Amino acid sequence: MNGGRTTGFQVSGHLHNTGQLLVFRADREGKTRVNITGGPLAYHYQFEEIYIHYGLQNGHGSEHRVNNYAFPAEIQVYGFNAELYHNMSEAQHKSQGLVAISLMVQLGDTPNPELRIITSAFNKVLYRGDKAQVRHLSLQALLPDTNGYMTYEGSTTYPGCWETAVWLILNKPIYITAQELYVLRRVMQGPDGTPKAPLANNARPLQGLHHRTIRTNIDFRKRPDAKCPSMAQDMRYRDDFFFPANTWRDDGSLSHNVV
């Protein structure tokens, strides 16, 4: 992928129910390292974690919105700046410390095959403190088939909310089935015995743009009949900023809109 290319082999790790989020963390003992490079990134970033945000309803779940459209879920792939810092804990406090790749997740009948490696573990992390092994995950195969992206410098959305992340929002969703979403929505905040409420609806509230610059590699001068992988008419970052893109239809298909 031109905007945040991943290199390396498959990674293994564990999916954790923290009581606030589902987080996949790569095993540090393994020798396999996945680098994220290219596009707007000035450094090499080493993959570390995946965060999963989702809602109890299909119209609520993602932290980013497109034309004020919230996807059922959003998967965020985090890496740390391996050229300047030693690990994630150090990098998240530092300038240009993190990269965060945002994958919008849409409901569909043809799910992303690599995503199923993660969703197959949902039944094993129903309660806080549970963890399940996830093996042989290819980040490259998890990404949607697009080179289009929007990028800006912002904050992490997990506690700490450090202003140290270079965000890339990929311009095409990946797909999850209704059955996989059903299992995901059964995951609870509390431990077995006192499960409390569902873990869903764990997106950070929309934030203001605060004069951030949003850039893109999408060419909006394409012909009306050109194929374009964009998701919606407007790209919305958190609060009141709209970026012109293409039309999202309710059936999940994509269509070009001349701007």
UniProtKB/TrEMBL annotation:
Database matches in Gene3D superfamilies: Alpha carbonic anhydrase (3.10.200.10)
Superkingdom of the source species: Eukaryota
Pfam family, one: Carb_anhydrase
GO biological process: one-carbon metabolic process
InterPro entries registered for this protein in UniProt: CA_dom, CA_dom_sf, Carbonic_anhydrase_a-class
Record-level Gene Ontology MF annotations: carbonate dehydratase activity; zinc ion binding
Domain Alpha-carbonic anhydrase per the UniProt entry, residue ranges: 1-218
Family per similarity comment: Belongs to the alpha-carbonic anhydrase family.
Name this polypeptide is given: Carbonic anhydrase-related protein 10 isoform X6
Protein's organism: Cephus cinctus (Wheat stem sawfly)
Encoding gene (name): LOC107273447
